[in-house]
Write a structure and sequence with these properties.
The chain is an alpha/beta fold and 410 residues long. It has 2 domains: 140 residues, no CATH class; 210 residues, Alpha/Beta hydrolase fold, catalytic domain (Rossmann fold, 3-Layer(aba) Sandwich), CATH 3.40.50. The protein contains 14 helices and 8 strands. Strands 1-2-4-3-5-6-7-8 form an 8-stranded mixed beta sheet, with helices on both faces. Strand 5, helix 8 and strand 6 form a beta-alpha-beta unit. Helix 6 crosses helix 14. The chain is elongated, with a radius of gyration of 24 Å. The termini are far apart.
Length: 410
C-alpha cells in the first residue's frame, strides 16, 4: 500500500500517512490483527460527539487558514487536509493514547500502590515530552497548501505563468514572471513558509514599480507547486536553484542584471542556494532566520531551559524521521559566509516569529559583504507594509549599487 501511494505523492513520509487509514481498516475489520482505534468515552453520546469533533476539525482548520490569509479555495486541498488530519493523524493519536493507557495499566499491576501515583506522573510527563514536539513537527512539515490569487496592480499582458523543475529534478514548480520593457534587472523572489507567491505581492509591486522584472514561484509543498512536505530549506534550496536555472534559460532575462530576494524561510533557502548562483549580483534577506535549531527552541520558549532543550532534541529526531532533514544542519548563517556578493538584511525589531537577533547573526557571519536595516516596530515581513517607499528605496538602491561597484577584496 505504501509503495502504491508513494507513486502518487512522491514522499515516503506522505506515503506512510496517506496509507495508514486503509491499512488500519483492513487490518482491524477484515484481518483482525490490528485493534480498532478506540474513543475513550464511557457514553454513546460522548463517542458520537468525539467523532463529530474529529471529523470537523480538519474542515474548520483549512477553512480558517483560507479565510485569514484571503487565499483561493481548493476542494482538492480541502479533501487532502480532511483525509490527512481527519484520518491519518487522528488515528495515530488514538493509538498513541491507547498505548499510554495500556502501559499505565500494566505498570499498576506490577508496582506497589505507594509508587503507582509517582510512576503514572513520570510516565505522562515523558509521554507529553514526546507528544508535544511530535504534533509540532507534523503541523510544521505537513501544512495545508494555500492557493495563490491573481497578481493585482500589474497589467495582465505582463504576467506570464511559469512552470519548471527544481534543480534536483524531483519537483515541478509553478509561479509567475512579471515582464517589463527595458527593465533595470530581474529579481528572483522567494516567499515564506506556509504561504505562496501571491502572499507577498506588495513586494512584487514595489520591485515592479522600481523598474525590475520579477520571477516568483511557489516552493514545493506550497501553492500551485507539487509536493506536500516542507523541509525549511533542505530541499527548498533546490527549488531556488531551479528558479535560477529557469531565469537563465529565458531570452528576456539579462544575465548581468540578475538579483534575488527572499523572505523568512524563502530568505533562508535563498541563502543556502546562493553559493551555487554565480550570476546573481546582489541579494536581499527579509526576516530570514540564521539557524533552524534556535528557531525550534524559540517555539518552546515558554518552557524552562532544560525542558526546552529536551523537547527541541526530540523534535529534531522526529523531523529527521519525517523529512530526512537534520535541523542542526540548516544554518543559513554558515552558508552566508561563503557568499561574496552584496547582501542587504532587513528585519523588524518587533518580529515575534523570527527574533531580530537572527538578523544580527546573519550580518556578523557575512562580515563586510552585508548591510543591515532594522525597522523600528516592524513585525515579521512587515517593513514593506509599514513604509513601502522606504523599502523600495532600500532594495532598488542596493541592487543598482551592486551593478556599479566591485566586491571589496582588501
Amino acid at each position: 500500500m505504501v509503495l502504491v501511494v508513494r507513486m502518487f505523492v512522491g514522499s515516503a513520509s506522505e506515503a506512510f500517512w496517506m496509507s495508514l487509514p486503509p491499512v488500519v481498516l483492513f487490518g482491524s475489520r477484515f484481518l483482525r490483527v490490528i485493534p480498532p482505534p478506540r474513543l475513550n468515552s464511557p457514553t454513546r453520546f460522548g463517542r458520537i460527539a468525539s467523532i463529530i469533533i474529529l471529523a470537523l476539525f480538519p474542515a474548520v482548520y483549512y477553512g480558517f487558514l483560507v479565510f485569514v490569509t484571503d487565499s483561493a479555495w481548493s476542494w482538492r486541498e480541502f479533501l487532502l487536509v480532511s483525509y490527512f488530519f481527519g484520518l491519518s493523524f487522528e488515528i495515530s493519536l488514538l493509538y498513541v493514547y491507547q498505548l499510554l493507557e495500556f502501559t499505565q495499566d500494566r505498570l499498576r499491576e506490577r508496582v506497589k500502590a505507594r509508587y503507582a501515583g509517582a510512576l503514572a506522573v513520570s510516565l505522562r510527563t515523558a509521554f507529553y515530552l514526546v507528544l508535544v514536539p511530535y504534533i509540532f513537527v507534523i503541523f510544521a512539515v505537513h501544512r495545508p497548501k494555500l492557493m495563490p490569487t491573481p497578481i493585482a496592480g500589474i497589467p495582465t499582458e505582463n504576467v506570464a505563468q511559469v512552470e519548471f523543475q527544481s534543480r534536483d529534478q524531483q519537483t515541478t514548480l509553478r509561479g509567475v514572471f512579471l515582464k517589463r520593457d527595458d527593465p533595470q534587472g530581474t529579481v528572483i523572489v522567494c516567499h515564506g513558509v506556509g504561504a505562496n507567491h501571491s502572499d507577498i505581492e506588495v513586494i512584487h509591486q514595489v520591485l515592479y514599480e522600481s523598474g525590475f522584472q520579477v520571477f516568483t514561484f511557489d516552493f514545493r509543498g506550497h501553492g500551485l507547486s507539487d509536493g506536500h512536505t516542507i523541509t525549511y530549506g533542505l530541499n527548498e534550496r533546490m527549488d531556488v536553484l531551479g528558479a535560477y536555472d529557469a531565469c537563465l534559460a529565458r531570452d528576456d532575462v539579462d544575465h548581468d542584471r540578475l538579483f534575488a530576494l527572499g523572505v523568512s524561510m524563502g530568505g533562508a533557502s535563498l541563502t543556502l542556494a546562493l553559493p551555487e548562483m554565480p550570476k546573481v549580483k546582489a541579494a536581499v534577506l527579509d526576516s530570514a532566520f540564521a539557524d533552524l535549531t534556535s528557531m525550534v527552541e524559540h517555539q518552546f520558549r515558554f518552557l524552562p531551559q532544560t525542558l526546552r532543550t529536551v523537547v527541541t532534541q526530540v523534535a529534531r529526531g522526529i523531523s529527521w524521521i519525517e523529512t530526512g532533514a537534520d535541523i542542526n544542519q540548516l544554518a543559513p548563517a554558515q552558508a552566508i559566509s561563503k557568499i561574496d556578493i552584496p547582501i542587504l538584511i532587513i528585519h523588524g525589531d518587533a518580529d515575534r516569529i523570527v527574533p531580530v537577533e537572527h538578523a544580527s547573526l546573519l550580518h556578523a557571519a557575512a562580515e563586510r559583504n552585508s548591510t543591515i536595516h532594522i525597522e523600528p516596530g516592524g513585525p515579521h515581513i512587515g517593513t514593506v507594509m509599514m513604509n513601502s517607499h522606504k523599502y523600495e528605496r532600500l532594495v532598488s538602491q542596493h541592487f543598482l549599487r551592486a551593478l556599479n561597484s566591485k566586491p571589496d577584496t582588501d
